[in-house]
Amino acid sequence: MFRLDNKFLEDLGLGDLPEEQKKAFLQHIYSELEMRVGEKLTEGMNDAMLDEFGSFVDKNVEKMKEWFAAKLPDYANSEDFQALQQKTPAADEATLLSEFGAMKWLQINRPDYPQVVAATLEELKKEIAANREKILAK
To answer: pLDDT tens-digit profile of 13-28?
Structure first.
């Protein structure tokens, strides 16, 4: 697992950015990573798969419950789900189902998800490192 934090920026030679810029830049990196990973993961998916995953993104409780009933009917008793509940006690049902369902959907349909994230992050890090001077000059 990776962390987008001050150490991440230091490793890229950007530790001298002002604090306010660090926070904004880390958010930009996260958004860019999320977009690029999403693009790579959707390559080759048919419309049904996109719609199915979209129900988790959109927090469509009815559709999520249908998916769980068909794919993981005993999800509420799983250690993973219970751990998520304990980790996020204030989360509502839609958020819990969305987070847990998206993770499980990816495990089933895109078991290469961790490798896609890691490879995409490495690409992004190379781009950032190549533009370090421009970034620091802003």
So the answer is: 999 899 989 999 999 9
Torsion of Cα atoms, 80 then 86 then 87 then 93, to 10°: 80
For residue 2, pLDDT over 80 is answered with no
Task: Check if the beta carbon of residue 79 is closer than 8 Å to that of residue 104.
Answer: no
- The CA distances from residue 20 to 39, 69, 86, in Å, are 29, 45, 32
Crossing angle of helices 19-42 and 113-130, rounded to 10°: 130
User: Distance between CA 31 and CA 37 in Å, rounded?
Assistant: 10
| Angle at CA of residue 87, ends 85 and 92, nearest 5° | 45
Q: Residue 22: which residues within 8 A CB-CB, separation 6 or more?
A: 6, 9, 14
Amino acid type, 102: A
Q: Are 59 and 95 in contact (CB under 8 A)?
A: yes
